C-alpha cells in the first residue's frame, strides 16, 4: 500500500515533562502509554483509534502546541503546497529514527503479522515537518517509510497495533534501565 492522499495518523501533545503528562492522561482515561523508542526526544504513545496514535512528547520548540499529523505521499511536494497556499513550513525535515536496539522487535512483529519481510524494517519511521496554516494552527506532515505505512493502514485497531502497544510498554522498562546506567 502507498498513501495516495493525506491521512490522519497521530495527534501529538507537547509537554515540558512528557512522563508526567502521559501519567496524567493515563490516570483519567487508562490509556496504557508506552515510551516510544524514537531517538530524537522522549515521548510516550498509545493507539486511541484505528490507525491513529496519541503521542505525548517533549517539545521540539517552545511555542509548540497540540498538533494533528497527516501522512502524505511526498513530503517535499506537500511542504511546497503549504507555502503556496499561504502557510509556513516551520522546521527542516526531521527524521523519525528509532533506537537501534529495538529494530529486531519491529522486524519480529512485521513478520509475525505478515506485513512483509523483516528486511523491510529500517531505523526510521519516515520524515516529518511542522507547518502552520495562515491563522497560526500547527500541523505535522509525515512521509512514512514504506514499511511504516503498513502500521497505520487498518480500519480498526489491529493485532499489530495491540502487539506494538504491548511492546512499547516493554520498551519503556528497557529504556528506563538503559538510562539508569
Automatic annotation (TrEMBL):
Report keywords, A-Z. Lyase
Any GO molecular function: lyase activity
Asked if the record carries the keyword Lyase, the reply is yes
Query: What organism, scientifically named, is this protein from?
Result: Peteryoungia aggregata LMG 23059
Q: Name the lineage.
A: Bacteria, Pseudomonadati, Pseudomonadota, Alphaproteobacteria, Hyphomicrobiales
The protein here is known as Enzyme related to lactoylglutathione lyase
Identify the InterPro entries for this entry: Glyas_Bleomycin-R_OHBP_Dase
The answer to keyword Lyase applying to this record is yes
Amino acid at each position: 500500500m502507498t498513501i495516495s492522499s493525506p491521512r490522519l495518523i497521530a495527534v501529538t501533545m507537547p509537554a515540558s515533562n512528557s512522563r508526567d503528562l502521559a501519567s496524567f492522561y493515563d490516570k483519567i482515561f487508562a490509556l496504557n502509554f508506552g515510551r516510544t523508542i524514537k531517538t530524537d526526544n522522549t515521548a510516550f504513545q498509545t493507539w486511541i483509534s484505528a490507525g491513529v496514535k496519541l503521542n505525548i512528547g517533549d517539545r521540539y520548540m517552545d511555542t509548540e502546541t497540540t498538533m494533528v499529523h497527516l501522512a502524505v505521499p511526498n513530503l517535499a511536494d506537500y511542504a511546497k503546497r503549504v507555502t503556496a497556499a499561504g502557510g509556513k513550513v516551520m522546521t527542516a525535515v526531521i527524521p523519525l529514527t528509532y533506537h537501534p536496539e529495538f529494530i529486531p522487535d519491529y522486524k519480529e512483529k512485521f513478520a509475525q503479522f505478515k506485513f512483509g519481510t523483516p528486511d523491510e524494517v529500517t531505523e526510521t519511521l519516515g520524515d516529518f515537518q511542522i507547518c502552520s496554516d495562515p491563522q497560526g494552527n500547527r500541523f505535522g506532515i509525515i512521509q512514512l517509510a514504506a514499511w511504516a505505512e503498513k502500521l497505520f493502514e487498518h480500519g480498526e485497531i489491529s493485532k499489530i497495533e495491540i502487539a506494538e502497544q504491548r511492546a512499547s510498554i516493554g520498551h519503556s522498562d528497557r529504556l528506563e534501565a538503559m538510562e539508569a546506567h
